[in-house]
């Protein structure tokens, strides 16, 4: 017997008084934008501005270039080449850390969300051969042994333990403690600059949008490669969460540009909620994502392999970038396809500004899912604080509606493009509105 037609709730509804009600077609999250509540500043400028000293340019925090030995041994770094390109160097010995300047470094997080002990105790995970060989080679170098000992003592101290405990450990205990430095599943990708190169005072923080488009491509490529590496290194990883917290109101420990990658043994709530809906409608990301955004006039930017729009159904003002590639896994995409996503994401960061707290969150198809899901990235402006109303009703107040967000960002993108500070792209009304641009759905390629 045929079931009666029952249309789903409209993602965007504008009420008579101007209130915009939003429902995410992917998670079901309900969001309202009430007129007048968005009339507040969104930036968080540096509280105390002072003239920079020469030392601050390289040692303002532990992520700065002068402090390579204060973080765990890096897994890889990206350096600039004389021809204007970039080169990746893997497993650099401690004695060579300061021979080159790292534009981006991939290092283990000193305090992992899921520790090495978690994987070892719950899944029997052991240090992979490649990681063990790298650890032994690093420790065989006296400079490397001194480096890890210093970081280990610092971790013990920060954990509330006696740093002198390190001296009482035998070699086996030390190697067990150091396993997380070489075989952990929580990495950080750190950019070189704390402040922009032309900064004169502490207000000029270097964010994603202050990178050049070429630098941002190198940053994204390293994150994509690291994501793949974390899957390959641990067979119990079901999903690698990739995110960037910018500024302290958005959860950053340091006001220094960095991304985090965390391997987890579940798909994650967001992926599970999306998967339920995508199984019911495999073309959901087109129909209720990019196509719907185009139909409602929310497209922001577009290039050959990616499209960006003002998102809806998010707790915070959110910009979204979708890869249009038929390939779902970013590490299997062509360089041009990855760079296309990078260019739009970089432009959105530049339009947002380095003084706006934000969360960048990556979404890709978990490796154990058979349903195609496109790679996409959300950029959330953390310009409000969740409070009692949201907690009691699970209706979230987003202070900027999608159309206002779209107009604001498009105007800024046009200025940035005119000044050649972002890569070439279509902006606003120039973006094509052809349906089904996302080719992740294999039916569309037939």
UniProtKB/TrEMBL annotation:
Q: Which domain of life is it from?
A: Bacteria
The record's section on InterPro entries has: ADP-glucose_phosphorylase, DUF4921, HIT-like_sf
User: Ranges for the DUF4921 domain?
Assistant: 15-440
Q: Which PANTHER family match?
A: ADP-GLUCOSE PHOSPHORYLASE
- Name of this chain's protein: DUF4921 domain-containing protein
